[in-house]
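User: I need a structural model of Profilin from Rotaria socialis for a docking pre-check later this week. Nothing fancy, just the predicted structure tokens so I can convert them on my end. Input:
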Amino acid sequence: MSGWDQYITNLTSQGITHAGIFGADGSRWAASPNFPSIDNLKDELPKAFSLQPSGIVVDREKYIYIRNDGTFAVFRKGADGMAIVKLNQAYIISIGINQKPEILVGKTNKIGEYLKSCGY
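Assistant: Understood. Predicted structure tokens for Profilin:
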């Protein structure tokens, strides 16, 4: 178990279905078991924070862009939500089945703020 796994365990223990930490280059630092595939992850993560994001495809299902504030981006697919928190060197992705994205943001952003304070 890598040191990053503790943050994934923290998120999934709070009811988040899937969580992952990925480097700015798209490399996987840690992820929950069965973390879904995201098409073109390396290119999609920065786009989530662009001026014209359109959505992200997760396991061939498109999550529609809702909003971002520069530090986090929120997406939705039906009753499912996704939050992406931007760190200095990485991104944290949380996906919740039947969970509002706003709840995901709150939980994911707490860990993101901590990791940013540590230089990540």
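Before docking, keep this in mind: Strands lie at 18-23, 28-31, 55-58, 61-68, 72-77, 80-86, 90-96.
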